[in-house]
Design brief:
The chain has 17 helices and five strands. The protein has 382 residues and is an alpha/beta fold. It has three domains: 204 residues, Rossmann fold (3-Layer(aba) Sandwich); 38 residues; 125 residues, Zinc Finger, Delta Prime, domain 3 (Up-down Bundle), CATH 1.20.272. 36% of the residues are buried.
């Protein structure tokens, strides 16, 4: 992975190259950034720069064998930990090493892919993955091996916020007493979900969403599409290159979300003082409850975005509105007047609370039914 392959973040690239060239390599770093900003790609490029002792922003060096191994993600000094779930092939105690071939394919296809894409590749997007204590034991085993290059060993922990308590505690001991020439790179979209004792032992680098111009240029040069279409997709992607690729390929996971959202708010409008409308909301809740928990959380985040877009439109901030609903007879400008300063905070709170309880394995049907009834009240609030 070359630094030149990574979109944007020039200041972070320069910082990593400069600090590594000067021999100032922290033993634990935490890359924080939203989906599709390139945190994983940057971690791999940085690991290659260190292990292969490369030079310059192009991440080139004389050690061709080392660079070739990195290109195939098969270098013995590069280790990965990531969330896993039980599958048909791995029925119990799944750990990262059990899925290493899938993982390499996942990165090769799209290093900007998100957690939902990873679960989709495993065919288990209806489950919530975890990094378990068995993975922490694998870390100990991997780092006990002698470095092939006689240099650093790199451990990349993707979605580190998915570590359970047992795994977190075991990792904490490793961070407190690091072995010589071992670098941990933790990657997360949610800094607050990583226990504070681990965060305090890491140097934190924060990645912002990618500028529209960067995404536009990448779509034109890498996907060979018209600049006007690329700009429109980049505007909709909101700094997420992974989302831009999904929109381009028309396999965006949010496409069915639009219909579910419209069905939901229409039922909520009808439900006030209408028993039939309440039954519609219950049926809707049962439908969404039948999805996997990751899909439910992703949908609730989509709902938050839709309400935010409606609020911006209501307050005439048209230039910030990027969603263009395609459901028949539903126009965002007609919906916008019902989302205002008097109800938006409560709507956001209820959606966030619902996502929180679903994350913690609450009864999805009850959570969504309760949310729907509350929406009926809030959406009619003057």
């Amino acid at each position: 992975m070359l630094f030149s392959d990574i979109l944007g973040h020039e200041h972070i690239k320069n910082h990593l190259i400069r600090s590594a060239s000067q021999g100032r390599i922290p033993h634990a770093q935490l890359f924080i950034g939203p989906e599709g900003t390139g945190t994983l790609a940057m971690a791999i490029a940085y690991a290659q720069y260190i292990v292969c002792q490369n030079t310059g922003s192009d991440n080139a060096g004389e050690n061709e064998a080392c660079n070739l191994k990195f290109n195939h993600l098969g270098h013995p000094d590069l280790h990965f930990i990531y969330p896993t779930v039980s599958t048909e092939d791995v029925k119990s105690k799944p750990k990262s090493i059990d899925f290493i071939q899938d993982w390499r394919q996942f990165i090769a296809e799209n290093p900007y892919g998100g957690l939902f894409d990873w679960y989709k590749m495993l065919g288990v997007q209806n489950k919530q993955g975890e990094i378990r204590v068995d993975d922490a034991a694998e870390i100990l085993k991997s780092l006990a091996l002698k470095s092939l290059e006689g240099s650093y060993k790199i451990m990349i922990i993707w979605m580190a916020d998915k570590m359970n308590i047992a795994a977190s505690n075991k990792l904490l001991k490793l961070l407190e007493e690091p072995t010589d020439k071992t670098v941990f790179i933790l990657i997360s979209e949610s800094e607050e979900d990583i226990i504070q004792t681990i965060r305090s032992r890491c140097q934190v680098l924060r990645f912002n969403g990618l500028p529209e111009s960067v995404i536009t240029e990448a779509l034109v040069s890498r996907e060979n599409i018209d600049e006007k279409e690329a700009f429109k997709i980049a505007h909709q992607a909101q700094g997420n290159y992974n989302k831009a690729l999904h929109i381009l390929k028309e396999d965006n996971e949010e496409l069915p979300f639009e219909k579910w959202f419209v069905d939901w708010v229409r039922a909520a409008f009808k439900a006030k003082g209408n028993a039939a409308g309440i039954q519609e909301l219950i049926s809707w809740s049962e439908q969404i409850a039948g999805l996997g928990r990751e899909a439910q959380k992703k949908f609730l985040n989509y709902c938050i975005d839709m309400f935010r877009q409606a609020l911006l439109l209501n307050y005439q901030a048209d230039s910030l509105v990027y969603m263009e609903p395609t459901v028949e007879k539903f126009k965002l400008e007609n919906f916008a007047p019902f989302v205002n300063g008097n109800n938006i905070s409560e709507i956001f709170k209820e959606l966030s609370d619902a996502s929180y309880h679903i994350e913690r394995n609450g009864n999805a049907k009850l959570i969504l039914t309760d949310l729907s009834i509350k929406l009926t009240r809030l959406i009619h609030k003057k």
